[in-house]
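Revision sheet: structure tokens.
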Amino acid sequence: MTKNFKEFPYDDKTTHILLPERFETIEKPVTAIVIGAGRRGYVYGQFASQYPQQFDIIGVAEPNPIRNQRYATTHKIPAENCFLNWEDVFTRPRFADAVIIASPDRLHVGPCLAALKAGYHVLLEKPIAPSEEECRQILEASHASGKIVAVCHVLRYAPYFRKLRSLIRSGAIGELISIQHLEPIEHVHMTHSYVRGNWKNSTTTTPIILAKASHDLDILRWLVGKPCTAVHAFGGLRWFRQENAPEGSTHRCTDGCKVEEECPYSAIKIYHKLRERTYVFDLPEDKDAQGDYIMEQLRTTDYGRCVYRMDNDQPDHYVANLQFEGGVTASFSLQAFTSYEGRRTRVMGSHGDIVGDMTEMVITSFQNGKKEKWAETTDLHGGGDFRLMADFVMAVHANDPNMLTSTLEASIESHLMGFAAEKSRKEGIVVPVQC
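Predicted:
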């Protein structure tokens, strides 16, 4: 199967996604039902809009009526295939090839098990499940059903990480010795998602090491190519706490906060003035009405609350040391307090090293000092979103899970690493990983 790639605008900003221009010809499009029409459901929907001959979304389950209606309109989904509750999807006989589960973290297990029981293939957003027991339950159900379960570890499909893995495998830097990997969340992203937002509380969603960093643990396991045997982690919630609230601050940024204009986390500045991350508000179509609508959301939802007065518990800094079979080590750092996003990677080998930042890398040989540069402009997931979708569509069409890189079996290992890291962080011990 030949795939060429071109650049295509992702939204009205400067980010892009790399799209496969063509696939192997198929008789009719693979059909899917999307459970969860939020941000990730929207991305996978874009793929269907761009490639209707290969992929067609014919059903949606979304409790937010505005998102439900907009998604149905975009994808021309008939009313009888629009559901407010995911459970209602499975009261009917199977009417599509696959189910895409892009619901909140703790609403993955139920719909995934129901989909497999009903005979659907599944594309499952990460994290797989909030516990090891539930991950293994899904794996068992997948084997029993004979259906494909692909996990949205999209970084495995990003050209940057594919190139990095290829270089390591080829011996370009000799024998792999160690990896340093940084996930800079970026300070505004941290407050948006993990202080004010949907993932602010680890007990009602999942710990940040899974909610945010399961991608990174998965990539480290994929790059090393051997099982992780032990984890030692540290970190905690250092800054976004009541005692750090500036004098003159208020419960909400809209309550006359005396330091609002100088606060880097001002909700008024982020959402109203700069209009960043406003997709969470399901803005009205009338642009003239959007400003007042945003301000009302800031007065009534968590997105307008002071970041120092939330019920958040997610760590804002997190480090983990990982030991892999054969002696390879990796150090992973998840950090809120950066001015930038985009993962940074340093790979150390016996005969060279590689330094990269998701869009480019420099490979240096110890033998002759020669430096080779690799670069590619991609979207925020490194071009992986649509490549994942392309492979999932073709895997479902061929009923062949081997066409996927992020199979359920492969992805569970990184979740076990995450569970071990959280146990280590909380108990202050080195935790063995048993896959």
